[in-house]
Model the fold of this input.
Amino acid sequence: MTIEPNMTDYDKEYEEFKWNVPEYYNFAGEVVDKWAEDKKRLAMLWVDDNGTQIKKTFNDISVASKKMANVLKAQGIGQGDVVIVVLPRNIEWWIIFTACIRCGAMIAPGTTQLTSKDLAFRSNKSNAACIITNPSIAAIFDEVSDKCKTVKSKIVIESAKAGWLFFDDAMKEASQEFKTAKTKAEDNCLVYFTSGTTGFPKMALHTHSYAIGHRITGKYWLDLKEIDMHWNVSDTGWAKAAWSSYFGPWNQGAALFIHHTDRFDPITTLDLLAKHPITTMCGAPTIYRMLVLQDLSQYKFPTLRHCVGAGEPLNPEIIDVWQKATGCIIRDGYGQTETVLLAGSFPCIEPRYGSMGKPTPGIDLNVIDDQGNILGPNEEGDIAIRVEPERPVGLFKEYWKEPNKTASSFIPGWYLTGDRAYVDEDGYFWFVGRSDDVILTSGYRIGPFEVESALIEHPAVAESAVVSSPDETRGEVVKAFVILAPNHEPSDELMKELQNHVKTTTAPYKYPRKIEFVEELPKTISGKIRRIELRNAEWGK
Done:
């Protein structure tokens, strides 16, 4: 059955689009509770690797989030307090997320790969009042809890743990009556830690209007309707979850498909896709690359109608194989932790493989030069969003507590994404690369400084430089150029030792998959490492 897309005339929609942001807005009250009026409306189908299947309606989520909001209130957590949420794809994540929004607390999500050092840094940087996690992460946090002076409440799911409030017990006692906080659309709501070129991760702060901004993500790119079941193959620690596992789908009244698993497996993914009534899917390019390596002729996908990918352009061969097997073109989308969807290959426009597509309605996206002038067709420059006279909905408020870093991302009239591209004669954007040294791999954003800092802690390392390097499966990976300290010799054993050292010193996904031992590093006259020279050599530029 062919379903007409939500957008049928791109030019008309883009021209006529208008943002409507009320003074007061709360996603829990305005959206979740609205859909909950239909007691049977499905919010999610949750499955795990043991074959367990659980269905939750919007009413279930609404009621549970009110109870959880009361739990938070009893713990002294209220409007403006930061709650760190580090959970895999447990159902509780959606309940807690909604509860925090409902009571006006600020959510600081994190991936389950965070180390004790990461957790301490995030707690102290954000002055977090509460952390909610599972027993394994709770044990890691306990190693540094005495250094996290602002955390006054610790809540654990799955099983009880000494010194922590057990979620199940607290929920049994909690009332399901809760008056949703009267939050302004521009009140603080969500903070994501995002890596940069220098220093440790900065905090991208979003307001409650961020949820409104994701209406364009859910409506135009994900192309979701109330009848859909959407699967985002991404974990909950990243902004992608806000895009495709929360605000985007639920704005549209679509149900979520959630697969709770410890690791991605292409065979399991294909089995689930064939077995369940999944209609739309979002995955990082790496995931699609792994899926097409399987024998797709063994599967039928009777309900799948729309697929999207984000993070990096997909090569045409992958898209072609996937389309032949499923009937679906993988449509690219572009955005950042700091934004909602900025550009996409929308269902109503001709796909151009390798392109990011066209600007999203409501977003004035351009390629500009250093002076802020819009460049002509096929001229490479900086991707920028016009913020004057009107700031687009969904753009982050600031890098919280770091005004200098915020200021450096803006020039008069524009927000600079840090990415470079060109626009062709027909208005399609084509990604060229980062304007800084941040590495984008398998959907992760990795700053070289964090990896270099981890390496230098090893006694064998005198100096290092970290850049991106091409990889067939992941698009790009982390590569470290390492100068060894005296009395240390290069070897495969040392390489593995350094890789394992980084995995244990920082989040494991940041480790260098490639290491090259060198005698010297290219530097400026002032002694600053020229990463660009190393990066260009890797990419043959």
Q: What stands out?
A: The longest strand covers residues 461-471.
